[in-house]
Sequence to fold (124 residues):
Amino acid sequence: MACFIVPATEAIVTTVITKVVKKKEGSEASAPEKTSFSKKLGWLNTMLWGGSGLLAFEHVWHGEVVPWFPFLTAMNEPGSASEMLHEMATSGSLMALLVTVVWLGMVGVSTAIEKREAAGKSEA
Fold:
């Protein structure tokens, strides 16, 4: 019903953090062969916004999100609202966590590749 709200909220927070980090990185010189942290956060933002958008579209398609107040059909009945909050706490949180874990894996692989390339350049 509203599971997309949790990853979308995480996307909002990480977008703000990315802008702050990018501003700080702009004043500091970093190694050109190293991927900036703001770019890596951008990967997370793309994954979160894309997933949230797709989930929101799916909920609109099934009539669970409507263009009139209260926007979420589950908010029309008190029993449905508690079901919606439970879905957000379970499914939404798990989706946001899974996306973040996959991103951490991407960052780990990226860092390992950068270290391997740097070691190869120093040996040559």
Q: What stands out?
A: The first helix runs from residue 5 to 27.
